[in-house]
Design goal:
CATH superfamily of the largest domain: Nucleotide-binding domain of ferredoxin-NADP reductase (FNR) module
Distance between the termini: 10 Å
Structural class: alpha/beta
CATH class of the largest domain: Alpha Beta
Number of helices: 8
Helix content: 10-25%
Strand order of the largest sheet: 4-3-6-1-2-5
Number of domains: 3
Shape: globular
Order of helices and strands: EEEEEHEEHEHEHHEHEEEHEEHEEE
Radius of gyration: 20 Å
Length: 318
């Protein structure tokens, strides 16, 4: 999304939700309204030209109450979580994108089972509220290292025995297959968000139960799903006719940046969607983990942090 399509929001309040987890409630400036969104959506938070991070919306979908995001402090991260923990307070403003949803909830087809690990609870919270409002028969398994690190458990208490909290420090490592069997996941639509190890285990379970469906929200790319292909150089033409050479093994984002063409990017792994760019000409070599097969076949958008060109030239709307 171009910078002009972003909006400035005010930090209404901040709270400590668990050890290392801080929430921020964002509201529109000067009595304005925030864009509509659906459960599972996330926003980009632009902290500087080179520091863009994604956070799931964890509040209800009523924009009048504001958007809530939750930030896990990551000591080994690249600076985004430290910035939002240490430098942002109520009354400050932030530049954010409109919500995008790569983790959409479908209540029309099959019974939902939710699996969250750690901060992966954030996109699932509004999903639970929507499932409850719709009268769906749902269950949640929420796993964490200990009670002090598990955010929003107070909010989950209202759902009673639909929610199963598993704490490793008091119960040991969860037998995930047994837990999923207990919830009837073998014949349900499983929605999972959390660390890579948890998602890999849920994928393994789903692969062994063909009557289940699986939708994942990733924080990082799946190394086993990384696609390889032609690494030869190619040319990118921008919307105003500038030609930029992309070298072998060089990303489009890096080539454009070196040429003075500004783009927004964050994960650099093809999982967040920040760098999604319209394709005006040429055929992309898709290597992301976001686009559907139909979107890849259409070829009218691509993730320029990882994807390349099937041919010699791409024309991009940048």
């Amino acid at each position: 999304m171009p910078a002009q399509d972003h909006l400035t929001v005010t930090v209404k309040e901040t709270r400590s939700e668990a050890v290392g987890v801080r929430s921020l409630v964002l509201t529109a400036r000067e009595g304005g309204s925030l864009p509509a969104w659906t459960p599972g959506a996330h926003i980009d938070v632009v902290l500087s030209r080179d520091l863009v991070r994604q956070y799931s919306l964890s509040s209800g979908c009523d924009e009048r109450a504001g958007w809530r995001i939750a930030v896990l402090r990551e000591p080994e991260g690249r600076g985004g979580s430290a910035y939002l923990h240490d430098r942002v307070e109520a009354g400050d403003t932030l530049l954010v994108s409109a919500p995008r949803n790569n983790f959409a909830l479908d209540l029309e087809t099959s019974r939902p089972v939710f699996v969250a690990g750690g901060i992966g609870i954030t996109p699932i919270l509004p999903m639970l509220a929507a499932a409850e409002e719709a009268g769906a028969d749902w269950q949640l398994l929420y796993l964490g290292r200990g009670a002090e690190s598990m955010a929003f458990t107070g909010e989950l208490a209202r759902y009673g025995d639909r929610v199963r909290l598993h704490r490793d420090d008091s119960e040991g490592v969860a037998d995930l297959a047994a837990e999923l069997d207990r919830m009837g996941a073998a014949r349900s639509h499983v929605y999972a968000c959390g660390p890579a190890g948890l998602l890999a285990a849920v994928q393994e379970y789903a692969a062994a139960h063909p009557r289940s469906r699986l939708t994942l929200e990733r924080f990082a790319a799946d190394p086993e799903a990384q696609q390889q292909g032609d690494e030869r150089p190619f040319t990118v033409e921008t919307a105003d006719g500038q030609e930029v050479e992309v070298g072998a093994g060089q990303s489009i984002v890096d080539a454009l940046t070196q040429a003075g063409v500004r783009t927004l990017t964050s994960c650099r792994e093809g999982v967040c969607g920040t760098c999604e760019t319209p394709v005006l000409g040429g055929t992309p070599d898709h290597r992301d983990q976001l686009l559907s097969e139909e979107e890849r076949a259409a070829g009218d958008v691509m993730m320029i942090c990882v994807s390349r060109c099937r041919g010699d030239r791409l024309v991009l709307d940048v």
